[in-house]
Predict the structure.
Amino acid sequence: MPMHQLTIPRRSHDSKPHERECDGRSQCPESRPRLQGLDPHTAPSMSQIRLQLLPLAVALVQVSCTTSGPPADLAIQNVTVIDAVNGAREALTVLVSDGRITAVQAADEAVRATEVVDGSGQYLIPGLWDFHVHLTYDARFTEAMPGLFLNHGITSIRDTGGPLELVVPAVEGMRAEGVTAPRVFFAGPLMDGEHVVYDGTDRPLLGIGNPDAETARANMARLAEAGVDFVKIYEMVSPEVFAVLVEEAQSRGLPMDGHVPLSMRARNVGPHVQSLEHLRNIEMDCTANPAASVAERRRLLANPDGIAGGTLRSQLHSMYRLPSVADYDEAGCREVLASMMSTIQVPTLRLNALSLQPPFARSDWSEVLEKLPAEVAADWGAPSLGPLGGRSADPVFPNWSLFLVDLMHQAGVPIGAGTDTPIAFAAPGYSLHSELEMLVRAGLSPIEALRAATLRPAEFFSLEGEMGTIEPGRLADLVLLSGNPLDDITQTRSVQAVVIKGQLLDRSELDALVR
Ligand SMILES: [Zn+2]
């Protein structure tokens, strides 16, 4: 359903909030000290003061049930709450104060809140993540991205590669006091090998070279100094440099993401990193004789002719990718998956399998373009791109990607939802919903797809106690939907309102964030 046909949630700014009834059954919405409401910033009315002072004797025996204290900042009332741990819970009210969820209570309990949203007939999910983003890949997007993400219900992003001199200012801008933007976590540059794929010549500058252990240690010190949230290990590193990067990241408590290096076998990489992207090069270890193929690749990576990094990588992909898929060995692949039981796989299916569901073929693609920076919209809307945007129509690798995700999912390998936006026509924000659809197409249930975009990313950063579910104490990042995503995953697109860091943005405010 096109966005503009959706109804805006009913919302009231209740100047005289209801007093919460003290029934002794439930938890209180606020955990702040009693009578704090007397401070001048939240001065209560005389009647509120009386209500606070009169039942002091009662309060002594029912301390957990205050009717006093300031009202919650926000209440989303009578809504179906959905998260990957608790499933769907109907008829609840969620209270938010100071940027956190303070209570999840029955809808028929009275609430006191400064701002009240009627969630009747609607669905509340945790704020979504895009777990694979490049804020600085295309300068035309950088400034527009935070608004585009929020507009589509994405409240957290992980930037998986860009030069520090570009990424750090972009991150600082998003984290600045008073700025309305998603939470952002960043890696800095791709830690590549002697030959760098994204070296700024024929591709954007995203990577830095780590030809030897000493350079790798120095680079890691520089990244740590810059305050990176994690490290991304790229495809051209040698096994020796890989080991050093792992050691250096572990010693600093930094989680690691990466592509399987072409010089290594996936089963020897999986156990050492916390996430892997694009299913990249995993097929090369899912064959009958992966040891011979990795030995050959190492010889080619010695690169005596000095081929540029990006070209060399493309050559190796062409030589090994499809032949490996054709040489699939089930028993071998099961061993590979067994090495990844604690490694979140971010398959970026909307990228790997773009030709199976090209963005250009979507009925709402013209609406998507309208929200993008004008220059990009003109490029991406060019009819000369054709139905696949110039991409190959060969279905072998797309189908392999869906097959492998299903296999991983059945084996219990954790899956994360990321898009690689803005690469390959991934509209920031919008494309995450396409990824969720593709995950369901691959075999995940809708709630498992939601887990991939909520709890899994939180787990990568050891933040599962802070975000990813809707429970008291969690950070208040929420998305209100008009349709049930468990019935139909495309309903994650039906965003009516977003709560980011406790701040409510209704549909019109979300639309004001994009052009
Ligand atoms: Zn990427």
